[in-house]
Amino acid sequence: LPHAVMSRSVRLLSSMADSFLRKHFCFLTLFLLGMEGSSPAHLQTQPQAPEDTFPPLWHLVPENIEDYPIRNHKTVINVWNYLERLGLYKILLKSSAKYFSGLGPNNVNNILWGLPLQHGWQYRSGRLADPFNSTGCGHMDRESLCISEFSWWACMNYYLAAIPFLGALDSDFFEELPNEVELMPPDKQREHFCLSTAECNTQIPKVMSAWRDFFKIFPKIQWSYHSIDNSEQA
């Protein structure tokens, strides 16, 4: 019964994500901008341990698509593993760093920081674990890096991690990749999650379109920085 309830919740989340991004895409951008107060640039000025500045285990996270395994000529990413899902954010941050060079060194003012920092908080607080504890997924005494498809938080985060990454991929935001990228399905409820650009464009076309548009903005942001610099020099 609990799994049946969670299955209905996941279907509802998919519908909510589609509706939200179509109606409130500008608000998402403002949310990311508002999260600047949680960026490493801000956190480094606060009295806290250095390891708390970044998401947990940040130093272990893949930062290039080439860091993921290749199977059958496809780059395969297990988005149900905390490190591999967090790696999607790290790749987005690294790929977008050049567009934020005018905001300070080391990419610490990148507006995308809000997403991995939130995901790190979800992991640290146990929100990505199996809420029924029937599988051990996500529980520190068993499979601590596992992300449960039965976690409401994990499913919602899927639409703020995997889908943005695929949208960026579909917008040619990254440099040319040698292999097609495919996301691994969860053990259960496979039908609720699209796993490739082709599949997501079929299942949630408006959401994918919104994320493609979002990542096409970045080159224009870079251009405006250069324009400001040139006008000041003139």
Automatic annotation (TrEMBL):
<dbReference type="GO" id="GO:0005615">
    <property type="term" value="C:extracellular space"/>
</dbReference>
<keyword id="KW-0732">Signal</keyword>
<dbReference type="Pfam" id="PF05612">
    <property type="entry name" value="Leg1"/>
</dbReference>
<keyword id="KW-0964">Secreted</keyword>
<comment type="similarity">
    <text>Belongs to the LEG1 family.</text>
</comment>
<dbReference type="InterPro" id="IPR008499">
    <property type="entry name" value="Leg1"/>
</dbReference>
<protein>
    <recommendedName>
        <fullName>Protein LEG1 homolog</fullName>
    </recommendedName>
</protein>
<keyword id="KW-0325">Glycoprotein</keyword>
